[in-house]
Amino acid sequence: MTELKYLSGFGSEFSSEDPRKPGSLPIGQNSPQKCPYGLYAEQLSGTAFTAPRHENKRSWLYRIRPSVVHKPFKKLDIAKHLTHNWDEQEPDPNQSRWLPFDIPSDESVDFVTGLHTVCGAGDPRSRHGIAIHVYLCNASMDKSAFYSSDGDFLIVPQQGKLKITTEFGLMEVAPNEIAVIQLGMRFAVFVEGPTRGYILEVFDGHFKLPDLGPIGANGLANPRDFLTPVAHYVDEETPGFQIFNKYQGFLFVAEQNHNPFDVVAWHGNYVPYKYDLNNFMVINAVLYDHCDPSIFTVLTCPSAKPGIAIADFVIFPPRWSVQEHTFRPPYYHRNCMSEFMGLILGSYEAKEGGFLPGGASLHSMMTPHGPDDKCFNAASNGALVPQKIAVGTQAFMFESSLSLAITKWGAETCQKLDPKYYECWQNLPKHFSDKAKV
Ligand SMILES: O=C(O)Cc1cc(O)ccc1O
Ligand SMILES: [Fe+2]
């Protein structure tokens, strides 16, 4: 397969037409009386019509048939572990750690049927909340497309490359890259074997780049490294093509007789995109102390309260650690935010064992956490020479201002919750002494 092309930029006004149909994008207006090549014009609105101009998001799609050509949606129970029922379990404030979630091997499971909700809060009906899912699959979607009417999907592949067909074109997303597919955008996922990853779904709004303040105009995730697909259409009569819709936490399906990836040209600023985490420009403490992990924020979905995120996507990339007279690993911590962590590659500095790629942890609101005893001892006594840390690793955090509930699947059915997690802190000894200098 030839290398895919992308458009570079974040939040830009893009336009694209499939080179097989030159002139397919109308010039000078959105809705000509007759579109070039007999296409239909369809607007996809990502914000209210009246959202302020700097927040307004919409795209115009020029397609072979409008999306409305489909049979009625019917409820479907094929994604048994997809839920927004946050009351399945009693609340549990304990530190939680999951061993790697199993990828199915004895049956064929695709991206949609492989969606499993681990935790979340809130409700898409009031457009407020998040859901954290994992996808565990081994088969490609076939004659089907998926979209969420509930929230934007930030997809973090952990094992296996995803080939994603979207209405806007094709994307390939490998582990250590992420993709964002926003509310309402239709996509299909093709996989090459056992495949696993994490999804942060936000109900409130869209992801943004964090403000940089005194960092200046450049740094962290730079806008030019975000890649959006180029128009690529399929002209195919396909009886029984299934459109899966996640709507108010449930899955619905509608059939239609044509392939929905029939967008020949499009323009707008409401688009899917991907980002390679290797491109993150790391900023950190260069003299002393441990910076808060917000310096590693890739994307944020803000709440209406200044500086407070519905959810941040934060990474812990390879970097130099150089601080003098400092306990360099993450500090002991009680947070007014919920911290869900996953591991894409390698190991995490605060816990070398136990927290494994494809697993996860949740440190809930105000629940104490921090380095395990091994990490504390090593970092309290090690020579403070410049050290490249987290080489060959990539941990990440979904940090949310919401208090999250774990689903029944997350707590019980998956059978991956480690009841002994708390033990990693029990051997932290008392070092208290009469000497001020220890
Ligand atoms: O809990 C964690 O491991 C995440 C985290 C990392 C860090 O560097 C500082 C604070 C924090 O919560
Ligand atoms: Fe923390």
Provide an overview of this structure.
This protein is mainly beta and about 450 residues long. It has a domain at about 285-405: Jelly Rolls (Sandwich), CATH 2.60.120. Helices cover about 5% and strands about 35% of the residues. It contains two helices and 28 strands. Strand 21 and strand 22 (about 310-315) form a beta hairpin. Bound molecules: 2-(3,6-dihydroxyphenyl)acetic acid and fe (ii) ion. It comes from Bombyx mandarina (Wild silk moth).
Strand order of the largest sheet: 1-16-20-13-10-15-8-7-28
Query: Which ligands does the model contain, each kind named once?
Result: 2-(3,6-dihydroxyphenyl)acetic acid, fe (ii) ion
In the CATH hierarchy, what is the architecture of the domain at 283-404 at level 2?
Sandwich
H/E element order: EEEEEEEEEEEEEEEEEEEEEEEEEHEEEH
Q: Which CATH first-tier class of the domain at 283-404 would you pick?
A: Mainly Beta
User: How many runs of DSSP E, i.e. beta strands?
Assistant: 28
Percent helix range: under 10%
How much is the average pLDDT? Answer: 97
CATH fold-level assignment of the domain at 283-404:
Jelly Rolls
Q: Say which CATH homologous superfamily of the domain at 283-404 is assigned.
A: Jelly Rolls
Pathway: Amino-acid degradation; L-phenylalanine degradation; acetoacetate and fumarate from L-phenylalanine: step 4/6
GO molecular function: homogentisate 1,2-dioxygenase activity; metal ion binding
EC number: 1.13.11.5
Pfam families: HgmA_C, HgmA_N
